[in-house]
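Deliverable D2.4 — example input (structure tokens):
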């Protein structure tokens, strides 16, 4: 069955003040898959978190469309984190996305505020030469050593991200011997070493995971990911930490609070 557009009047959920209004072209016609996607959002809301989505054949009959149309609509909702597929089980309504604040708080603190248990699985804990790019960010020499901590990030035992932290080795000479990689690094630095985080610069972008990253996180390599780069410094203005955090775009979102500019 061809994917022809549906006239706007047939789609009651596509109201001018609705949350999906931006998806409607000015000519007022939308592709069939998008119309089904909008209707599925209402189905998802009615079913609730954890419910099984009706079978593909049932959805085809309900919306009078082809299987290809239903599959495209469902695939987009999976990519957006509204639905989740379980191999051999079916498609389920996904839980709400986790919200990570864009602030000087750790991953641990951000999740605990939402009543979610954070966790980590250690991949690497080592000393290594900084190299040119990292040295420039930390204002050290390329041959200077950094401490590298790579961990898979968990939320209620679900893998949601991969974090690589690089610290000036000269500032933390005994870290490898005393740090427990299962705990919050920020809490350890503050409470045990008296480190003060005075500021940071952070950048967020969308990427696709590498095959290695997708394997560690347990996600589809085609799934969009949120990549966060952060460089932190202390009261003296000298940077001592660089973090590269890769998060599943279907499970995590970022939030910040903005003030009025005078």
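Example output (designed residues):
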């Amino acid at each position: 069955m061809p994917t022809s557009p549906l006239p706007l009047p047939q789609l009651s959920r596509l109201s001018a003040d609705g949350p999906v209004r931006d998806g409607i072209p000015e000519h007022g016609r939308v592709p069939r898959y998008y119309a089904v996607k909008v209707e599925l959002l209402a189905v998802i809301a009615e079913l609730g978190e954890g419910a099984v989505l009706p079978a593909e054949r049932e959805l085809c009959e309900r919306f009078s469309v082809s299987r290809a149309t239903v599959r495209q609509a469902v695939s987009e909702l999976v990519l957006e984190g509204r639905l989740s597929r379980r191999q051999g089980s079916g498609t389920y309504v996904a839980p709400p996305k986790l919200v990570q604040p864009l602030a000087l708080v750790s991953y641990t603190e951000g999740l605990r505020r939402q009543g979610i248990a954070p966790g980590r699985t250690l991949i690497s804990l080592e000393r290594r030469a900084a190299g040119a790019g990292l040295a420039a960010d930390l204002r050290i020499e390329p041959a200077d050593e950094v401490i590298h901590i790579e961990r898979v990030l968990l939320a209620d035992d679900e893998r949601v991200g991969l974090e690589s932290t690089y610290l000036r080795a000269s500032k933390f000479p005994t870290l490898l011997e005393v740090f427990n990689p299962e705990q919050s690094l920020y809490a350890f630095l503050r409470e045990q070493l008296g480190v003060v985080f005075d500021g940071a610069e952070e950048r967020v972008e969308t990427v696709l995971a590498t095959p290695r990253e997708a394997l560690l996180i347990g996600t589809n390599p085609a799934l969009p990911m949120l990549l966060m780069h952060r460089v932190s410094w202390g009261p003296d203005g000298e940077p001592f930490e660089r973090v590269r955090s890769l998060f599943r775009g279907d499970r995590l979102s970022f939030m910040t609070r903005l003030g009025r500019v005078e």
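Residues 1-21 have pLDDT under 50 and may be disordered.
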